[in-house]
Amino acid sequence: xxxxxxxxxxxxxxxxxxxxxxxxxxxxxWYAGLHKPFWTPPDWLFPPVWSVLYLMMAVAGxxxxxxxxxxxKWLWGIQLMLNALWSWLFFGLHRTDxxxxxxSALLICIAAIVVRSRxxxxxxxxxxxxxxxxxxxxxxxxxxIHVLN
Length: 149
Description:
Structural class: mainly alpha
Order of helices and strands: HHHHHH
Shape: globular
Helix content: over 70%
Mean pLDDT: 94
Number of helices: 6
Number of strands: 0
Radius of gyration: 16 Å
Strand content: under 5%
């Protein structure tokens, strides 16, 4: 398949819809009242970081869409669903345990995308690597919050 710019717009919109799950399920008073580890970043850092990561994720999805690698396509779709699910589990349901299960699966899925694409589609690996690092960091936060609370 070829890379068309209208399809890039589709991926930007798709990822934007998922990003709205994070906007819909805000941390709020429940999160503010939790015990958090000392390495918790300030709240203002999350929106700009996630904005850049979502943009990179959309471009990676667009590049993957143009490839014949079905497994990579499935992995990308699954990670997107897991990403959307985490906000609902953690902030919506206040289930730090289920959030931890979800973010762990998300981390594995993103790692699989990076590993699988690094020899076949290096730009995808580079686009997804910062996301992998951030989700690994977020996983430690989720785990620590679960243990502390």
